[in-house]
Amino acid sequence: MERKEFIVVGAGPAGLSAAIEAARSGVSVTVFDENARPGGQLFKQIHKFFGSKEHMAKIRGFRIGEELLREAEEKGVEVVLNATVIGLYREKEIQVQIGTEVHHYKADAILIATGASENMVNFRGWTLPGVIGAGAAQTMMNLYHVKPGNRILMLGSGNVGLVVSYQLMQAGCEVVALVDAAPRIGGYGVHASKVARCGVPFYLSHTIKEAEGTDCVRGVTIAQIDAKYQFIPGTEKHFDVDTICVAVGLSPMTQLLKMDGVEMADTRGGYIPACDETGATSIPGIFAAGDVAGIEEASSAMIEGRMSGEAVAAYLGYASTDEKALREKELEESLGALRQGMFAPKNRGKKLEKTDEGIELSEMLLEKGYIGDDEIKRFPGYRAEIKVHPVLECTQNIPCNPCQTACRKGCISIGDNITSLPISVKDSTCIDCGMCVASCSGQAIFLVSENPEKGTGEVTIPYEFLPLPKVGEKGYGLSRSGQRICDATVRKVRTSKTYDGTALVTIEVPIGYTDRARFYRKADEAQ
C-alpha cells in the first residue's frame, strides 16, 4: 500500500481547482482520472463562459482547461491518467486500476470530484445505433473532430441541449428540431436565441414517440403531450434523421461516496452527499465538490473545488483557521454571485413571470426560443438611434457582465450586480470597435446604425461558422426566428485575436430591417 497526503478523484474543473488550491498551501496532491486526458468536460466546451472576470467569463472552456492544467503543473500536482478508482473504503483507502494493474493507496484526505453522467429517456427504438447522449456528441465533435450525424433531432432544451445544438451546426450538421416535454425552454434564453435565428424550430410540450429504423436510426416521430405527459392523438410529426441527441439532464456519480458509507441526501439536484459549503462530508477527511455534490455550471464547480482545496489544507494543518475563514468568505461571495438571478438554485422549478427589475418576461422566448420584435423594446438593452449603437438582447437575469467591462466608452451598463439586465446607455458614443459583440458569451449584442439618405442600415452580428462570408457577398438577413426577411450585402468582416474566434460580420439591409435582421445567410444557402 502506498501512502498519499491528498488524493483527488477526477481531473475535471472541480478536481483540478481543488488540487491547485491545496498545493498552493503546500499540500502534496495526487489526482487520478480515468480518461486519457485531464480537464473533464472543459475540453469539450468550445463556447465562452458566463460570469465575471473572476469567473473566467468570455473565455472558452477548453482554454480554461489549459490554464488549470498549467497551474496544476506549476504547483507540482501529480496527475495520473487512465487511472480508474474502483473502490473507496474505510480509513480513506482507495483502489485504482492503472492499465492491467490494481494499486492500493491510503490518503490523509480524499476529494471525490467524479462529476455526473448523462441521463437517458426510454422511447420505442431508443436502443438503435444513432441515439446518443448530447455529451457523447460533444465528445465526438470537439475532441475527436467526428460529425455525430448529418440530420439530427435534439431532445432537451436545457443549456446542454441548446449549446450542443449550436455546436452541431458549427460542425456542419443540420439540426432539424429541438424538442422538450416541458412547456418552457429550460436553458438560457440567449443560448436558445442563437439556435432559433439559425432556423431551428422548437417543439415544447412534445417528446419522442418513436425512433424509426431497423439497423440504425432512419427517422423519428414526435408528438405533443398533455399536462399528464400523455400523447395527444393526431399531433404526431415525422422527421427524417440519422441521429437523435438526448439532453435530459445529468445524475451525480456518487457511487464511491456511497461505497464508503458517506451520508447521502435526496435533493432536487440528485442523490448527493450531505456536505457543508466546503464539501466536507459526514466522514472526516472525505470531501466532495463539483457535479457529484449537485449539478451546476462548470464555473460554480471550479469555485467549489477551490473551497474544498482550502478546507483540505486546513484539515491537514497547512492553513490556519483565520486563513481558511478569509479565503472561504472570498470564495463564497464569488459563488454567491453565480447563484443569483432567474436560474439560481432557489428558483428551480418555479415559473417566473418577471425579471428582477419587474419587466415582464418574453413568453415567445420561453416557448419558441426567440424574443418577439415588439417585445424587445421593453428591455433596457434596446435603444433606437441613427448613429451606430449597441442593442443588447439579453432579457433574463443571468450572471454575466463582460459587455460592461469590454466597452471603454460607457455605452453599456450593468452595475455591481452581475445578474442585472444590461442597459444600452443613451447619449453615449459608440466607436464601433465591436468588443462588446465579441465579448458577449450569449452572442446577444448587435451594433446597429442607419443611413436615412440611402434608405439602408447596417447590423453587425457575431458569427462563429466557417467559411466566413466575404465582403461584397449577397445574401439574406434572417429574423430572430431564422426566417428570411430581407436582402443583405456583407459590408465588413472583422476578425481579431482579441475577439477569440468570434467574427464580426456587418450586413447592409433596408432601413426598416435594422431592428429585425439578426443573422445572415448566403443567397445559395438561404432557406
Radius of gyration: 24 Å
- Helix amount, in percent? 10-25%
Structural class: alpha/beta
The total number of structural domains is 3
Strand content: 25-35%
How would you characterize the largest beta sheet?
Answer: 7 strands, mixed
The CATH architecture category of the largest domain equals 3-Layer(bba) Sandwich
Kindly report how far apart the N and C termini lie: 64 Å
Return the CATH topology of the largest domain. FAD/NAD(P)-binding domain
Protein name: NAD(P)-binding protein
Domain 4Fe-4S ferredoxin-type: 421-450
Keywords: Oxidoreductase
Organism: Porcincola intestinalis
Description:
Strands 1, 2, 3, 4, 5, 6 and 19 form a 7-stranded mixed sheet that branches. A 7-stranded antiparallel sheet has the order 20-23-24-27-26-25-28. The protein folds into 3 domains: 204 residues, FAD/NAD(P)-binding domain; 127 residues, FAD/NAD(P)-binding domain (3-Layer(bba) Sandwich), CATH 3.50.50; 154 residues, no CATH class. With 527 residues, it is of the alpha/beta class. Helix 1 packs parallel to helix 2 and helix 4 packs parallel to helix 5. Helix 4 links the parallel strand 9 and strand 10. The mean pLDDT is 95. It has 11 helices and 28 strands.
